[in-house]
Amino acid sequence: MDRKTSDGQAGPLPPSGERPTLKTIAFMTGLGITTVSRALKDAPDISSETKERVRLVARQIGYQPNRAGVRLRTGKTNVISLILSLEEEIMGLTSPMVVGISEVLAATQYHLVVTPYRAQDNALDPVRYVLETGAADGVIISRTEPKDPRVALMMERNFPFVTHGRTEMGLVHPYHDFDNERFAYEAVRKLAERGRKRLVLLQPPPYLTFYLHMRAGFERGIRDFGATALPFNTVNLDNSLADIRGAAEAMFAAGDGPDGIVSGSGSGAVALIAALEAGGRRLGQDIDMVSKEPHMFLQWLRPEVMTMREDIRLAGRELAKAVLARIEGRPAEELQTLSYPIPTGEV
Amino acid sequence: MDRKTSDGQAGPLPPSGERPTLKTIAFMTGLGITTVSRALKDAPDISSETKERVRLVARQIGYQPNRAGVRLRTGKTNVISLILSLEEEIMGLTSPMVVGISEVLAATQYHLVVTPYRAQDNALDPVRYVLETGAADGVIISRTEPKDPRVALMMERNFPFVTHGRTEMGLVHPYHDFDNERFAYEAVRKLAERGRKRLVLLQPPPYLTFYLHMRAGFERGIRDFGATALPFNTVNLDNSLADIRGAAEAMFAAGDGPDGIVSGSGSGAVALIAALEAGGRRLGQDIDMVSKEPHMFLQWLRPEVMTMREDIRLAGRELAKAVLARIEGRPAEELQTLSYPIPTGEV
DNA sequence: CAAATCTTCTGTATCGTTACAGATTTGTAT
DNA sequence: ATACAAATCTGTAACGATACAGAAGATTTG
Questions:
Q1: How far is the CA of A10 from the C1' of C22 (A)?
Q2: pLDDT, tens digit, 9 for 90 and up, residues B239-281
Q3: What is the largest CA-CA distance in chain A?
């Protein structure tokens, strides 16, 4: 039972330093550094009594593995990289997203590193950086394109990642997405139910995948509910609110404008409302609108607008869970989820 | 001139691996690893010809120092930790803040790690974590309290940090802050100019430093412009919008309410507007309001509200610059900045 | 011309961790 | 007894970078 506390050997030197390391525990328990390491990761060749003893000491002195040591030796960074477009900032998606991700990572050893990029042209840069420097174990990207070079690159390198948004390359990869098709379809339905027939869509920029979805849902609605789609292509959700407002004002001034609007974002809706009201239209009377609603802004300040909520925080949680699962080797096809529009208070 | 390319020595082994390291460069140049390391950091005992040669090769093969190696050896993490309260999420401050910080860090080797905490009670946890594990070289915290234990702790340990918001402990530390005193004072002035005399303030939670500032500015305005402050203490900016609305509705229902409101946040203003309109008041007629305005929401949907902008992105930039400077040893007293309300379009 | 000095370069040890190849003890089979 | 296997434990080397203490050759000094 009582193994001699080996001494006199080339035993580990006293720890001395500040923060406890494996050496500290080895010294305190009289075990070898290797044994301590293996005990802490529950290796099969360590007696359960020793494991217990090591764990106890480790807990007592508040041992936490040195990340640099682990990373240098194993290559495991314990980092998830969230790659953000600065455009997203405008839409205010970042905050709840980060919160959702953090909620999941909090229970793990993972840290969240945020890496933004400027223009869509540079979207590949941060991904390359992570791949080349091994800066993270997994990556979360958003604003996917149908043929997304980032996805192609990471799949080719077999690097764990998840996308916020789908792609159309015939490649199976983890994603979480909001069902923008359904959103737009339901939006058209609501407008049609109010007798609106001449509809416009404030849509995403055309190179993003969710443009296709939103557009498809919109057009399916148009067909199913016998409405007409008017063009509104001069601006999209990536334009500044001032530009959106400007374009919308021009449209209303041209006369013969829409009697129903679907807005792909809450802030976009604000610009549209400003424009239509500047043009003398009255919401709920001359024209109706359906929009995504990030907060309660529209619901409270323009209750005439019908709103649906997209739960970005949930998206963050799903995305984080998916990368982690991917890192652990779960197959990509099990890591694809959709979320659906949440109806907010009806008028 | 031509130093013999030393060979036959215990020269470095071929690099072989994927990513180039110092060893790779050493092998390619025929120099020692140490020499390469010192050449790259422009040490004085390396000839400028060698430096040039090393730099050239390093650039050619795209050498980037291994972060884990540096971190393990030197303790330098090249990480800035942004410690966030989940409460901030609600106010949507995170996004532009992260963007601002990233803008500054992009030009450096630093990565940004986001570490959120749940309740105000746990605010100390992430700070302790960073201090104990050495997870970062510098920390950015916000939501400071007059006697902030995080500040005390980090100063005691002489750990580089900057706060978003000031403290009142007689400790000199780097900060960036928005002048909420001025904001509230100017807000009262605007209301007084419109003849409003019975004012309420939707204020921050009382334990935060900027409560004191906003309150002070408000009350100074009250005195200077001969108005009256009505109590509105049941809720603050940390409460949910629903709660704020509820409390405001109760206030209006009680009769004899305010004829002017100062709202410390844009989203809070929305709740207040919803409440006052539900109570039959009309903005700009029965009552006036001044608010911070994060976007264009208020300006476009309730142009009657007078707004001022707080540039959070700028705050992010200033905070990042300050931690970096502090890490480089600049004295704290040189790293204290204030930003001022930006008037948005007048009615 | 030997000694001292300067210039430039390099090997060794180390940070904390883990993979790997033993080592030691104990128990089992022959 | 002797060999063999099982159960536990441990030293060494390595990941990539840098601090430190030389080392080798060239140059100056008296």
A1: 16
A2: 999 999 999 999 999 978 999 999 999 999 999 999 999 999 9
A3: 95
